[in-house]
Amino acid sequence: MTNAQLTLIQIDNYGPWTVTPNPRREMDLQTMQSRLFADLAQFIGGRGGYVFFTRFDNMVAITNGLDRTDHDLLQETIGNRYPVTISLGTGTDPSPIVALESATAGLQEAGSAQDGDRREVRFGEYLAEEQRTPEDVQIAHFDVNDATGKYTDQLNEFDSFIQIEQGYATLMRYLREEHGGLSFFVGGDNIISICPGMTEADYRESISHVEATAGVELKVGVGIDKTPHGAGMEAKHALETCRHDGTVVELGTHQDDVEVATD
Amino acid sequence: MTNAQLTLIQIDNYGPWTVTPNPRREMDLQTMQSRLFADLAQFIGGRGGYVFFTRFDNMVAITNGLDRTDHDLLQETIGNRYPVTISLGTGTDPSPIVALESATAGLQEAGSAQDGDRREVRFGEYLAEEQRTPEDVQIAHFDVNDATGKYTDQLNEFDSFIQIEQGYATLMRYLREEHGGLSFFVGGDNIISICPGMTEADYRESISHVEATAGVELKVGVGIDKTPHGAGMEAKHALETCRHDGTVVELGTHQDDVEVATD
Amino acid sequence: MTNAQLTLIQIDNYGPWTVTPNPRREMDLQTMQSRLFADLAQFIGGRGGYVFFTRFDNMVAITNGLDRTDHDLLQETIGNRYPVTISLGTGTDPSPIVALESATAGLQEAGSAQDGDRREVRFGEYLAEEQRTPEDVQIAHFDVNDATGKYTDQLNEFDSFIQIEQGYATLMRYLREEHGGLSFFVGGDNIISICPGMTEADYRESISHVEATAGVELKVGVGIDKTPHGAGMEAKHALETCRHDGTVVELGTHQDDVEVATD
Amino acid sequence: MTNAQLTLIQIDNYGPWTVTPNPRREMDLQTMQSRLFADLAQFIGGRGGYVFFTRFDNMVAITNGLDRTDHDLLQETIGNRYPVTISLGTGTDPSPIVALESATAGLQEAGSAQDGDRREVRFGEYLAEEQRTPEDVQIAHFDVNDATGKYTDQLNEFDSFIQIEQGYATLMRYLREEHGGLSFFVGGDNIISICPGMTEADYRESISHVEATAGVELKVGVGIDKTPHGAGMEAKHALETCRHDGTVVELGTHQDDVEVATD
Question: What is the percent of chain C where pLDDT is above 90?
């Protein structure tokens, strides 16, 4: 059984800030947002977690292995170096969506995202070291079969993007609704999902659904580990196996032994 | 009539690089990608253009005002500072999608995006200064009505994101298919579109389509100018007028006088 | 005759900010400072200028080719993306130190660097396009003879650093006092100087002085151009000639024809 | 007694890279160097260490609290995101200079800093957790008395810089020669030193020496802790006490109790 620790990172009062006193240059906003995300990726990634840019003003991270002290430091270091501050809500649950609901609710109870007085909120609980297990995190890494050959090298870039985007939009809804999983586009033709305990059959159905609905053919590697980075790396290696062997779903070796075998 | 200069920025051989010799840490890839995008945003934005992250390995920019020398420098400075290089294709046309098709085709003819020997390609034409007019660029800046009140402060962040995402997926297809316009999610509840000469009625229809199809209510400010930055700023101010006056479509003052009045 | 345009970039009220409300983490200050400098280097460098980190809270740039609009944009984009703002003073003169004196005086007259109300000051004059000539900028690029063999590969890093530092401290004072030139350590064993019209003999004397005083052996390549980047590149190529030919002073080809020949 | 863990960070074969195949744009080199330093500052600083830019191609860090795994990750993440790689040597000793000598020697033995085949070297020992004590790190934070009033607001920026620089050059040599301490200019009028167990009298003598030799008046706050960050923060607070009380040397409270009282 998985046990995800999800962190919601919300820029405080960001919308109003972007137009105060006048609308700011869009490319400056894009620069600031993407660098803030990059810094979060380094901070969280260097401690074994994963963060996704989501909407940039609200970013979702899976942070198994990061404790309260790490979150304190993250909030402080961003506040020291950016013109904006961040609030952090954390939740834990076997279901990723439930964990995120808990993380989000904590911030919402503290006030609106556009409340100018609500700054640097901290909310939530963290997995204690003794609660953690080697099956806490299940990461699925999807990509599109031959995206370069079928799209990038054939269509104009926007039409390639539409194909990838529609595949992503379909998968994100399916995994959310059917499994409570959280899927994020991470660039190229790649989607990474934070999943609950799902089986090989579950993944095959997901891929069939996307192909039937959006006409986009996916494959997936899956990893399970104590940390997001560990699970994600296992998923990447499993996806490499798909590429070499022409298979559609590959479960990392860890999962074969521990999770799926006993399912 | 608009006359967009579109630039496709493609990281050379990126997919293979990310797994050579072994899959690289995902958070390092995210960091590198988003910082590369931030640097492009500063470079292009500081010269009056706009760039969008699109798929990160392929990014789309509107670059009216940037000439061949600027593109030379961009390619050189990225090559000096990143572990990857970029190829650049440029095209111009009254229709944004046609301009991008031209830009993309140039790179495709030079070889595959995953051809390890195809590096730092340059292709395309640039608008000569004497060709440029004050109506070359039309930018539409959409946002979601009361996204904070309806989504961010109510739903968990992933479900908020799904709403915004479905609105975006619907709009991007509609504007592409009906008008040849290119729409990009830029964070929060914001979408920026590179549009051909569209009228107020065209925008009203687009918004109605998104509401009918995805259930997401948008409003839009539109700007026209010689440069993307100029048009984008006019669009932002027009969107502020929507917010204050409760209107759904606002055309910037420039457009009132010059473009739409004569349509 | 040279005609340098110098820009002083001063972070507003920085000292007090670093300890308000409490001392901030040193590594956050270092990160913020060095990234601010990097952004200035990209902005100014992409427009043909050079900037040096100097004291980080005060940075010196040579900005021939950047006009008032460029400086406006620089101030705006930094203000949009950093937790601090910058003031900019500009001066022009055949003598670099006189140009910088003028740039500095403008900011000093507007108030103290630690006056919390003095923010985003702009002061100064810019070289008009018609005033500019191909001999406006003289850049000298020094390095230490065989620094790797004599220091880096032999001494502990701090003792290597002391050697380089003492060479730099000696050169910076000599060129300042004798010629009104401005010298900046740029990393490794490299020093870049903004010089007035100096001759080969002047450079030989400078190098002799440093060797006699600090025991550090330098060589130098010199370039002259309309822009700092052009002059700096010529200087780098000249320094490569020193390396290959074992010479101590090399003047770029441009200088041979135009400046030195007529001296 | 202190017990410093020093890490030397050396960019592999950097000099040759900067001129291959031709000299690279200086502002790109400056950007890359300073961003690399910023990333090191975040990585090391977020784990309780301090890093100094030194010569940029060789950087010195005090890394008490970072183990082998942290150094592995640092080397990997830089290699993933930069066009250059780094080698890391580590040493530990009560004397900072001896620790650095050990760290440097390890890299030197592996080959020259300009050996193209010597890449991503790792050398050294790390303090085991059970060896670590609350007095391992002594950090001194110096600044110049009224630098803004006497220099920044009075002189042109280069002459201000010369004053600060000469003060630094004098202090760095004195502490190195007399105590084996390592001093680094960190911007503005600030110098941070990694010191062995030094007393209040030692600091008074250092300050007197700099005033007598270079005419620059310093004051200093000193902190002692298990980690560089802890000691550095204590030093910053002690320096604030100097500022408020007009004193010249202040030892942090920790030191009063533990180190100096027993000296």
Answer: 95
The SS3 of residue B62 is: strand
Express each pLDDT in C202-236 by its tens digit: 999 999 999 999 999 999 999 999 999 999 999 99
Nearest residue, CB atoms, C81 vs list A77, A80, A83: A83
Q: Is the pLDDT of residue A90 over 80?
A: yes
Q: With CB atoms and an 8 Å threshold, state whether D108 touches C15.
A: no
Nearest CA in chain D to A45: D77
Q: Looking at residues A161-170, what average pLDDT do you find?
A: 97
Task: Say if C43 is an interface residue toward chain B (CB within 8 Å).
Answer: yes
Answer yes or no: is C191 within a domain. Answer: yes
Let me know if residue C214 belongs to a domain. Answer: yes
Inter-chain touch B157–A54, beta carbons under 8 Å:
yes
Q: Is D209 on the interface with C (CB under 8 A)?
A: no
Q: Angle formed by the axes of helices B157-179 and B200-214, to 10°?
A: 130
What digits encode the pLDDT tens for the residues B37-68?
Answer: 999 999 999 999 999 999 999 999 999 999 99
DSSP chain D: ---EEEEEEEETTHHHHHTSSSPPPHHHHHHHHHHHHHHHHHHHHTTT-EEE-TTSSEEEEE-TT--HHHHHHHHHHHHHHSSS-EEEEEEEESSHHHHHHHHHHHHHHH--TT-TT--S-EEE----GGG--TTSEEEEEEEETTHIIIIITTS-HHHHHHHHHHHHHHHHHHHHHHH--EEEEEETTEEEEEESS--HHHHHHHHHHHHHHH---EEEEEEEESSHHHHHHHHHHHHHHHHHHT-SEEE-HHHIIIIITT-
Q: A10: distance to nearest CA of chain C, Å?
A: 17
Domain residues for the domain of B148 are 137-251
| Single-letter code of the amino acid located at C57 | D
Is there a contact between B14 and A188 if contact means CB atoms under 8 Å apart? yes
State which residue of chain D sits closest to C50, comparing Cα positions: D27
Name the pTM for this structure: 0.96
- Give the nearest chain B residue to C81 (CA atoms): B42
Question: What CATH number is associated with residue B166?
Answer: 3.30.70.270
Contact A92, A125 (CB under 8 A): yes
Q: Which residues of chain B have pLDDT under 50?
A: 255-263
Q: What's the structural domain count of chain C?
A: 2
Residues A127 and A149 reside in one and the same domain: no
From D92, D109, D131, the end of a domain falls on: D131
**D263 inside domain:** no
